[in-house]
Amino acid sequence: MTAKVVVLGQGHVGLPLAVAAAENGYGVIGYDSDPERVRTLAGGLSPIPDVTSARLTGLLHAGRYRATDNPDELSGFDIAVITVPTPLNADRLPDLGHVRAAATEVGRRLRPGCLVILESTSYPGTTEEVVAPILRAESGLEPGADFALGFSPERIDPGNVTWTIESTPKVVSGVDAESLARTRDFYGGFLTEIVAAGTPRVAELAKVFENTFRQVNIALVNELAVHADRLGIDVWQALEVAGTKPFGFMKFLPGPGVGGHCLPIDPVYLYWKVAEETGRPFRMVELADRINAEMPDYVVSRIERGLDARGIALSGARILAVGLAYKPNVADVRCSPALEVCRRLVAAGAEVRYADALIAEKPELSGLARGEVTAEDLAASDAVVILTDHDYVDYDLVADHAPYVLDTRRRLPGRPRVELL
Fold first, then answer.
1. Angstrom distance (rounded) from CA 4 to CA 49
2. Catalytic option among 114, 262, 335, 342
3. Secondary structure of 59-112 in the HEC alphabet?
4. Using one digit for the tens of pLDDT, what is the confidence trace for 65-92?
5. Residue 363 pLDDT
6. Known catalytic residue: 342?
């Protein structure tokens, strides 16, 4: 293969894609606007769990992959893939600033015959209503006539060793038949299974719905947990029993909220687009978003109740938070509900320490002191709250030495001094 591939965005989505393409013969330029990330990658150090530093170093030495923050190095590409973030703004509305900026850089260097693919998760219509006009304006070329344009939503689950970028079915779409065929051919060269969607809008809707499905069902079980507690029923046992049904049921588990890029953000893109285009609310999705956003406050209320039963005020209480990442066994605090719980505890006057050996010091953790899961730190706490259940933690040690534990992940069922969410 001699095609030059550029992947814009070298985070949890873009870096695994760039590495997979490079390992299968493409010459890949990994572009990122963050100079520090580029320096890290150029030094052969991978900042994400799904790509080992050894794999990255091998590709660097072979000349198959190069990281850059210089957009001029995108020139001469044959295939450009946009994998930049799609966050929410301060008003919790879709922010496509990164997509627009990436499309502008691509458009300035677009030539006839190129293939451009958007992977960033967004609302239905983004490829044709946002990206295509920018590419057209910057290049003077027509998508579907002068160059191919596709949408292929990412399905990255950080830390999942079973369903990797290579093994997870890859959805592809294009603005016309030729764009679809070229997008399918590109990914089909190094991924296991390709699934064609009829149009980019279909693929975009499918992607945001995948995560909305999880958001809604997690909200349902989270609200169930709140009401089961008030009814005096063990929700975890009820879910175990319900989970024995072999048809018509999928078990979701409660927790302190939802985190990562997908669940707190993608459903907002969907219900915003529905309201914007139809004038009608997507009521269930909006409600699920609110329910999950309220869970950190509920966790704090449960900690306060547990402390009060022991004659201890929340203000001034010493609390050890076990786990800060948004999911187990990863070093990722993006939109982490565990972090939100800690912030609310600090706001209530508690003295909070966090124990998460996977998390390095980060600016967003300012105001939180580090602790450890040791007999001494556990015993010195008024309360321990298990927020993210990393496998490395010695949970028996927690049960043996903590004076009171709120376990939001059911790691210590039936143990004395332990309450389950």
1. 26
2. 262
3. HHHHCCEEEECCHHHHCCCCEEEECCCCCECCCCCECCHHHHHHHHHHHHCCCC
4. 999 999 999 999 999 999 999 999 999 9
5. 55
6. no
